[in-house]
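Supplementary notes for students who missed Thursday's class. We covered one full example, reproduced here. Read the sequence, then the structure, then the short commentary at the end.
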Amino acid sequence: MVEPFNQVKEKKYTLEKLYKGLKLRVVIENEEIALLVGKSTRAKQNFSKKQGAQILSTSIQTGYEWHEQVEVFVTRSSDKVAMILKASGHEIARK
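Structure (token representation):
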């Protein structure tokens, strides 16, 4: 689901997913994007005012000596924002 951009500017915008026992969250607030695992911020960057895409990524441990890459793709158009959360290249959540 794609939300109107003006809603993003007025309040915190969050995408959450429980993945293999880990709480993954993407937060857009105060012109900043953050990727959190549990309560720990693992990646963040300024939310671009330009149209286009931004990617944040981190690795998570999902088993004994087993790690997976988590990425969030944030796409901004003139009036909308879309977020796609992926783990090991597979989509696990979208907003």
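Commentary. Residues 60 and 67 are 5 Å apart (CA to CA). The chain has one domain: 3-90. If anything here is unclear, bring it to office hours.
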